[in-house]
Amino acid sequence: MATLTYAYADLTAVVGPLATYQEPHSYDLCEEHAVRLTVPRGWEVMRHVGEFPAPIPHADDLEALADAVREAARTEVAPRAGDGDAATGRRGHLRVVPPPH
């Protein structure tokens, strides 16, 4: 895994080890996409030299993942104020995709 960070003012994309915190204009990528990333003409790519180490899972990460799986497994999603539409399973920019029939 790697983190892509755009420096718009410098017309530069920086691809480095996975960030430990979220920043604006940063996106996590798998190693394949980190290595193959291309940028628009006129931009520069700065890449980390060497392998991209696998992230070390933390208890908070595993707990958040378990909570997300539990939430997605619920059969009925009741909307909270401002959360989205229960009929489509939509919640903000995320949506629940029903299993194939």
UniProtKB/TrEMBL annotation:
<feature type="region of interest" description="Disordered">
    <location>
        <begin position="75"/>
        <end position="101"/>
    </location>
</feature>
<protein>
    <recommendedName>
        <fullName>DUF3499 domain-containing protein</fullName>
    </recommendedName>
</protein>
<dbReference type="InterPro" id="IPR021888">
    <property type="entry name" value="DUF3499"/>
</dbReference>
<feature type="compositionally biased region" description="Low complexity">
    <location>
        <begin position="78"/>
        <end position="89"/>
    </location>
</feature>
<dbReference type="Pfam" id="PF12005">
    <property type="entry name" value="DUF3499"/>
</dbReference>
